[in-house]
Amino acid sequence: METNRRDFLKGIGAAATGGALGFPAVVRAQTRKGIPAEPVKIGLLAIRAGVAAPVGAAGQRGVEWWAERVNKAGGILGRKAELVLEEESSPKDTVERFRKLALQTKVDVIVGGISTAVGLALGPVAEELAMLWLSWDATTQKGVEETMPKPKFAFRSVDNEVEAIGGAILTAKYFKGVKTIAGINNDYSYGRDCWDAFQAVLKRYTPDVKPVLDLWPKLGVTDFTSHIAAIQQAKPDLLMTSFWSGDTTILLKQAAAVGLFKSMKGCFTTGGGVHDSLKKSFTPEGLVLGYNSMYFNYAGASALQKQFVREYKAKHGEYPPYECDHGYFTVESYRAGVEKAYKAAGEWPSKEQVAKALEGIQVESLSGKRSWREDHVQMCNFFQGITTHKSEFDFVTIDPVEVLPTTKIMKPSTSTKLYEWINATFPLKS
Amino acid sequence: MRRAGLALVVALILAMPFVAGDYYVTLMLPFFAYSVILLGLNLLFGYTGLLSFGHALFIGVGAYAAAFLTSKFGVMHLEAILLAAAGAAVLIAAPIGGLCVRYVKIYFAMLTLAFGMLFHSFLLKFYFVTGGDEGMRVLQPFLLGFDLSQIPKVRFLTRPFYYYSVVVLAVATFVMWRIVSSPFGLCLRAIRDNPDKAQSLGVSVKRYRWYAFVISAAYAAVGGALLGPTTGQVDPNLAYWTHSGNIVFMMLLGGFANFFGPLVGALVFIFLQDTVMSIVPYWRLVFGAILALIVIAAPGGLMGLLDRRAVSWGEKSRQGGAPP
Q: Percentage of chain A surpassing pLDDT 90?
């Protein structure tokens, strides 16, 4: 269900008030020395239309859940968190929304951003406006090269190709003997970079692996019958894809109709983004499936994640995808950064002071400990595994679950050259 | 009366950086760029009777010209960029126009749409050249030879670049006014109203349509080049067919029968979108409803409504009736 901005703010305010009334034990908002009385304004940029709208909604829900909890507990240093929502769309329009939040609404921080094209536009604007921007999923990478090695106010997502690297590691681990591979990836930089990185890492484990086909459907395509026919013709040992939206579901349905995965393995590096649409009836067991930074059914999940999954299911009728975790992490790290900077400054910190405090900070996110690297790149764990039907759900889950930290599957700095690092790092020793 | 109104609008535009917030001043920048684009588009539609559904192609040409020149070739002078954008558009529009103006109505619209989508695919697919979906950076240009990079970007946009854009729009408006008021402009109107009669009077219909097409492309490219520095980034969406649809919407909203109608449409579109987007997620639905309402109830657009009110007020005045 969509909400408008007024309902959205009302909801957060009501939750905060209700929380304070209903839970007398929680700490009420306290005015501290050097802390302004008015709420902290947090700008949100979320995609609200098109193929990525569910991803934007998930990030927004993660932030809303955080705001309810934080406001119940008294806010950030006693200031209530007030969310101001704007839409992420094209780079041009999103830059205008960003400027509106910064110049007109005068928010304290802006979180959000999923598309890389948007990230590339927002990064420099954040620096120009001296506005803190904590990205959910958007990088400032041009291909696999970083365009902003030393930003002051922009904090970016993990590198685009990380999931493909994880997928290649698991392919080498679980699918011994794969000699020929085919790729079907969306026709844009993310798809192309994932395919290149996947091949590069897999070749470090299996030097004689050979790509026999690469297909580039446009993002949003809903008919893959010709692509599937081409894949059948090429007869690869494994099909790799970095699809992350509804096209994953459609591809699997149409592949099931011709029994594609009876004759080959599959590696879906990012398909877990639409995990509860991957029904057992058409999604086979034995595929590699990636869930990005949060796997909703992880046995080793924290109490926080378990509570979130439970409440999310009760409220929205589905199990949460990973974008919720990105949303939650960005605002929780902002809260921690403000509190850390306040200890040093003795007053509400400036944006520069918060930015400095965020560098290297680690917080408890939904998926566990997550942090910002010194060069403003997210660090977290990635969850991938082998699909199974052995669960109470009507969609596939993964077992075993492999936890892949970004310390292992992401290049160590923005200045590192990706393919030099891959050649020097893989195959991993353990 | 009209001159007084125009002078008031110009005074408001000139005063805006001193009286309005920075955000609203930056929101005027796409208005100036779209105004230039729409002056050209309306030469083609309002004056010549040809509806282009692929004009975003030329906006893309201008925007990418700014990106290539600033970030690849180190050409930072905006005057050179605008000229290069217009020149590139003329070179591309000449053969495309030559083919398209052989057709009219839906066939012309579909051909322009097809060429627009071809260019969009080129921007998306040849990402080693164009950056693909990630687009390209547009660096802050020099204005009149001055490197203003030491000024904070917002200040640059809301002062020197703002007034620079006003001057570009003023020049573009003056030139277009002279074009549509000239014998050439009259010929275009004759072609729009009755091409056979115009032909029989010795007007080379295809050649004049081609001139209009090329001029409107140059205008679109100049506007596209002005869009780049504000965002700092260009991407293939600028050349996508929905962008072509947006500028047609602006033209209809303001009214294509009035010289300034499309400019009013651009202003209302930009500020309405800004407001509605912040309030409801279904802003596209709202815009769709507005478009339907305009086509059904006010085909002359907002300026058509004003003109109608002005005419009826004038008639009442002449009859001794009280003004509304």
A: 83
- Dihedral sign for Cα atoms in the order B205, B208, B214, B215: negative
Are B23 and A99 in contact (CB < 8 Å)?
yes
Q: Which residues of chain B are modeled with pLDDT < 70?
A: 1, 308-324
Helices (H), A180-245: 189-205, 225-234
Say whether A162-292+383-425 and A5-158+301-379 share the same fold: yes
> Minimal Cα distance from B271: which residue of A?
A96
Residues of A with CB below 8 A from B233's CB?
A: 91-92, 95, 117, 120-121, 124
| pLDDT for residue A26 is more than 80 | no
Token pair for residue B199?
A: 């032909």
Encoding tokens for residue B90? 């003329």
pLDDT digits 0-9 by tens, A202-220: 999 999 999 999 999 988 8
Rounded to a whole number, what is the distance in Å from the CA of A321 to chain B's nearest CA? 21
CATH superfamily of A5-158+301-379: Response regulator (3.40.50.2300)
Domain ranges of chain B: 28-239
Instruction: Collect all residues of chain A within an 8 Å Cβ-Cβ radius of residue B231.
Output: 91-92, 95, 121
CATH superfamily name and code, A162-292+383-425: Response regulator (3.40.50.2300)
Q: What's the pLDDT tens digit per position in A120-138?
A: 999 999 999 999 999 999 9
Buried/exposed A242-280: b ≥16 CB within 10 Å, e otherwise: bbbbbbbbbbbbbbbeeebbeebbbbbbbbbbbbbbbeb
Tell me whether the omega of the peptide bond preceding residue B323 falls within 30 degrees of 0, making it cis.
Answer: no
What is the distance in angstroms between the Cα of A388 and the nearest Cα belonging to chain B? 35
Q: Where are the alpha helices (DSSP H) in B126-202?
A: 127-130, 153-158, 160-181, 183-193, 195-200
Check CB contact of A335 with chain B, cutoff 8 Å. Answer: no
Q: In the prediction, which pLDDT does B315 show?
A: 60
Long-range contacts of residues A145-148, Cβ cutoff 8 Å, at least 24 apart? A145/A418, A146/A414, A146/A415, A147/A120, A147/A123, A147/B137, A148/A123, A148/A124, A148/A414
Q: Where are the domains of chain A?
A: 5-158+301-379, 162-292+383-425
Q: DSSP of A360-391, one letter per residue? A: T-EEEETTEEEEE-TTSBEE-EEEEEEEE--S
pLDDT score of A28 more than 70: no
Q: Assign A413 a pLDDT band (cuts: 50, 70, 90).
A: very high
**How does DSSP assign A299-321, residue by residue?**
TT--HHHHHHHHHHHHHHSS---
Helix A91-99 crosses helix A116-129 at what angle (to 10 degrees)?
30
Q: A129, B131: Cβ pair inside 8 Å?
A: no
Identify the CA nearest to A127 among candidates A410, A321, A363, A352.
A352
Closest CB to A117 among B230, B235, B279: B235
- C-alpha–C-alpha distance, residues A381 and A158, integer Å: 10
State whether B21 and A91 contact (CB < 8 Å): no
For A1, the closest chain B residue by CA position comes to B281
Chain B residues within an 8 Å CB radius of A128: 152-154, 232
Question: Is residue A135 within 8 Å of residue A157, measured between CB atoms?
Answer: yes
Query: B229: closest CA among B144, B141, B168?
Result: B141
Q: Has residue A322 got a pLDDT over 70?
A: yes
Comparing C-alpha atoms, which of A326, A330, A329, A310 is closest to residue A318? A310
Q: Quick one: average pLDDT of A293-314? A: 96
